[in-house]
Amino acid sequence: MLDLMYNYSMKNFVFDFYNTLVDIRTDEHSEESWQGVVAFFAERGIEADPQKLIALYDECWSSYLFDLKETSKYDYPEGDITEVYKRMAITLGGALSDKEAALCAQIARRDSMRKFCLFDGTVELLKTLKRTSKLYLLSNAQSVFTMDEINSLGIADLFDGIMLSSDYGCRKPDKAFFDCLFKKYGLRRRDTVMVGDDIESDGKGATAYGLRYVYAGGGAAAHRVEIITLK
């Protein structure tokens, strides 16, 4: 993969995070994943059971995203997951502060995690590229827990910039999200390649923005990574 990447002679590499650098599996629809939130709510006088929370989580995310699509200026708006937990609490007859909603989101994330580790060879890949290029992270992710996850892996310092969609109100493949990155760091499209596992958000988003794209199915460091051109 490194040889393929160097053929581009790129000055900037923009990476997706989940399933590109990190091998992750979560389960938001098992009762086990919601026991911590049940206890968290109970401490605040909000009664619920795991099955009710599973259904309510999906319902509140859907209604929240619908509201965003109606009001947002972006083609692909992004929400802040803490708002979902606030809506869940209100529906159940309670209320959460911003700090409590953030804690709730972190608890739910922790309890839903089934696998979380860097793909083999990821650090070596990033360090090698870092010698001659600048590295950026552009991820559809929630900063309330994703920044902690990035820091826990010890790779944050390898990036010259990290941008998470929940901080900007839009997500890949939205042109606006790429604009945020390129304007903030003064990047040029001809010098930049996008590396990601999702053909829709990473691939089509990058190519529509005028970037070259490396498909990272199986992780960016995998031998089976292919370079594909989307027309």
Q: Give the helices and strands as they follow along the chain.
A: HEEHHHHEHEHEHEHEE
* Structural class category: alpha/beta
Report how far the terminal alpha carbons are from each other: 22 Å
Stretches where pLDDT falls below 50 for ≥5 residues? 1-8, 223-231
Strand order of the largest sheet: 5-4-1-6-7-8
Radius of gyration: 19 Å
How confident is the prediction overall: mean pLDDT? 90
Helix content: 40-55%
Beta content: 15-25%
- Quick one: how many beta strands? 8
Task: Give the biggest sheet.
Answer: 6 strands, mixed
Shape: globular
Helical segment tally? Answer: 9
Quick structural summary:
With 231 residues, this protein is α/β, with parallel strands linked by helices. It has helices at residues 2-6, 35-43, 50-71, 81-91, 98-112, 122-130, 143-153, 175-185, 199-208, and strands at 12-15, 22-26, 113-118, 134-139, 161-164, 192-196, 212-215, 226-227.
